[in-house]
Amino acid sequence: MGLTPLEGLMMGSRSGDIDPSAVTYLMDKTGMKPQEMAEYLNKQSGVLGITGISSDMREIESAAAEGNKRAQLALDMYNYRIKKYIGAYAAAMGGVDIIVWTAGVGENQTGTRLDACSDLEFLGIKMDAEANKVRGKEAIISTPDSKVTVCVIPTDEELVIASDTQKLVSKLG
After folding, report:
1. Which residue range forms the structural domain that includes residue 9?
2. What is the dihedral of CA 121, 92, 77, 99, to 10 degrees?
3. Given Cys at both, which of 38, 118, 141, 159 links 132, Cβ 3.0 to 4.6 Å?
4. Angle CA 123–128–129, to nearest 5
């Protein structure tokens, strides 16, 4: 993320990277004022805006499996953008040693992990489709001969927040 959470990957209700001229075009067409556009880009865009259903990837995956074309489009766009970021960061760093999938989507969206890492063999990434079927537990999901290790590492965000809060409170006295 940059100055705001809008930069970067498309999210549940956030647009992610967008051409600045698209913003002014939308403002002109809809008559939105700057604060209304900010609200729109932060709370009504992303996969929610594309699907018209939800910002919850579980619901979007389910709708796509039932043939909902907008849900499938949102998944395709989301996975493409992850792949684009993997490539961009690999270029910026001169290669990649490991890709770590974590948090809700990274731990549970097996299709996203497989799709986002597919066709990246030129970077040394080889996915193990069977190993990738894991959800919510630590695992290596790349093949043994993959030059890049791809793994899943579950998070416990609530525990980290509680621990950090406890440290802050104890410092206050």
Report:
1. 1-92
2. 60
3. 141
4. 120
| DSSP code at position 55 | S
Which one of 92, 123, 154 terminates a domain? 92
**Sequence-ordered list of residues with C-beta below 8 angstroms from that of 74, at least 6 positions apart, any chain:** 47, 50, 51, 60, 64
Minimum mean pLDDT range among 81-95, 100-114, 140-154, 155-169: 155-169
Q: What is the CATH number of the domain that holds 104?
A: 3.30.420.40
Cβ atoms within 10 A of the Cβ of 38, count?
14
Q: What is the CA radius of gyration of the chain?
A: 19
Predicted confidence at residue 160, as pLDDT, reads 86
**pLDDT tens, 80-116?**
999 999 999 999 999 999 999 998 889 999 999 999 9
Both tokens assigned to 135: 């959800």
Boundary of a domain, candidates 57, 92, 127:
92
